[in-house]
Amino acid sequence: MRTLKEYEKISEYKLYAYCLMGNHIHLLLKEEKEEKEELGVAMRRIGAIYVYWYNWKYERCSHLFQDRYKSETVEDDKYFLTVLRYIHQNPLKAGLVKNIADYKWIIYKANSETNED
Fold this sequence. Notes:
CATH architecture: 2-Layer Sandwich
Largest sheet: 2 strands, antiparallel
Number of strands: 2
Strand order of the largest sheet: 1-2
Number of helices: 4
Low-confidence stretches: 109-117
Helix content: 40-55%
Distance between the termini: 21 Å
Shape: globular
CATH class: Alpha Beta
CATH topology: Alpha-Beta Plaits
Number of domains: 1
Mean pLDDT: 80
Oligomer: single chain
């Protein structure tokens, strides 16, 4: 999460949603108009930094993510909500939790906690 937040400032993208899974990650990001760095470049850097740290921490040397970085353009509000719902439902569909709020690695929980304060 630290790397995502750091690159949000460096690359000037807006992070709307995330869901960290065991072998992949879902992100809903918005590229800003005067972006300092292309989103694809930022994602490669984020992935490389995280894999380097993870392999160092767990004394391993291997790929970590299931596939390469892929992106889709979200053109309208309806599709935005569809993508947001898909991201939030990922842990449920994978059978990791019975309630989205119980999943630790999703922005849904972070927003819920923030709104309660």
